[in-house]
Amino acid sequence: MEAVTSTHVHAGLTRARSSGRGHVLRLLLALFALTAFFATATPARAATAEPPTQAAYLADRLRENPVYVTDQLPRAVPRSTAADFTRLARRTGVPTYVLVLPGETVRDGKALLGAVHDRLGRDGLYVLVDDHSVTDATAYGVRAPADDAWTAQLYELPYDAGPLLSFERFTEVVALSPEKASARAEAARAAYEDDEPEAMYIGPSDRRNQSFLTGILLTGVPLSILLLAAYGRRVRRRYAGSARKADRAARRIPPALSVAAVVASAALAAVAVALTATAVFDQTASSGTKPPTPAEMSARAERVAAGLRKDPVYADPESPRVLDARALDRLHQRIDAFRRSDGGGPVYVALVPQTSESESAGDAELFAAAVHTKVGTDGVYVVADPADGTIDAVTYGLRLDGDRLLFDLPDDITLGDSRADESDDHRLGERLDALMTFLDRTPRTDRPVEGPSPAPAPSPAKDNALPPLFATDFWPGLIVGAFAALLLFAVSAGVTALVLRRRRPATEPFARLPFTAPTEPSASWLRRTAYAELSALAREFTEHGEQPLARDRLDAALLLLDGDPGRARRPGTDPATLVTVIALARAGRAALTGQDTDLCCGVNPLHGAGVRLSHVRVSATGRRLLPVCELCRDTAIADPLGIPPRLLRLPAPSGGGRLPYYDATDGPLTAVPRGIARVVERVRETAGVH
Q: Does this model's pTM top 0.70?
């Protein structure tokens, strides 16, 4: 009995030990299986958990090629310009490494160049360029006046010179000796410290100003010529009509030819303005940037899409890292959970800066659409800018309320708060986590929602091209030019009238009267001239003493004005009366100066003294015996038909035009053809004085 029991106990112990070893073995196999599963289930995530730093990535690019041009600035610096940067870099005479990056991705240029140099492990001149100019340069282990070269290009070039020209000027100064480079930098600083050089290019607003000015000149100049010429003819006809008509009669210049010459001058002025504006405003582009190729415009979207196919979170390697390993792992977990949720789907996060010189011109929604097209998979596409911290999200083909995602996303997520602004990483990890929570809570729809179709970004070639000169504000300029011409005409007419008014108070020499007296004088001209002549006669009469003829003529003139010389200047006096006053005053002055004659020109009493009586043609069918001045006498002999246009014409009593003076009045003026003595008698008879 005991033997049997001992045997059974030994067998039980043996089976127990075998069973324990089996459990351990099965446990070890299970652990190995889980390890293998996780190792194969998330290879991409493990590979991207620690993305390369910005400096490490850029050092690798310089190891491949000493000049690296980003694909994020195709509008300002296409990648094809790398050959030009390489050619210029060879001029420095030292190993030169060039990084062309968006300025938004560089927090500290000097620190970045130092970190890249440490990673690359090669001495040389390290240069950082953005979309405008050379921003930083440092020499490591070589002698190169980097600081002086940077200063020279900064001061010598205008702000719109562009990165390639800036780098060219930089290499030009680097190639100089240290002494010459230092002198060049000091000279540039002294010359342009207060005023920078004139801009090399103009923008659309400048072109609109040019178009506006061209339009103003194109209508203003020709119209001014026409208006001023017409006004000049009117002034000459009014103030120097006799001389002009006599001169025309002598030279036989037809009026139509004179008008045609003015019109031709205006037309030539318009053509000259158009040609001059085209030659002066000959700019066609707003910068010197080469137009990028389609491949350069799509390179960044393809790079990001290729990264998102491997991992739903793509961090731009050219930018500073904004998500640490913990935040990155947390984001992956939330993305996986959303993908498996009801109505959820893939989420793609692109941590890429959005600059105005990118292919999408800084439009995050447009960039998301391009990446979605390249990836070829529907989902939520998130664009997080590591430079300014903004977040945009767009959904494509998921059962999500797209409007809520587009319009109701809180500002704390899209823009951040004050803490995000003060943080280098803009707290993107926390805000992206909040975005995933918002996605989880977004209402689902019955069917997939199509994503937005944003308008395409402007073409680089069209965006860089200036509008035509004869477009945009050119048309408003034409209207303004017409108003400007009218304003100039009004100002010129006013100034001319003021000048003539100031000139007329002084009487003119008798010899000039036949040439300057108008044939159709205005009321204002008659008032000014009558007052000036009467004042001159009174003044000269006082100076020369008593002279009977002068006394009689002065008294007669004053009788016509009721003894008040000032009445001549006041409106309301009859034009015929004023002409009579002028004729009497001039005859009195002639008597005082020894040039007395009783004859006064009967063609136009304003011509002054007559030299002889002559039968002259006063109309096409009639003749009259009139005293004539020398000019009228010569005209009557050379061109009898030239006398009618020289007749003094006054407003008709009943209105409606002008008549020869002897038909326009029945007062003392009609006695002019019979001499000044008869005019004096008629004045006395009219006034009742004997």
A: no
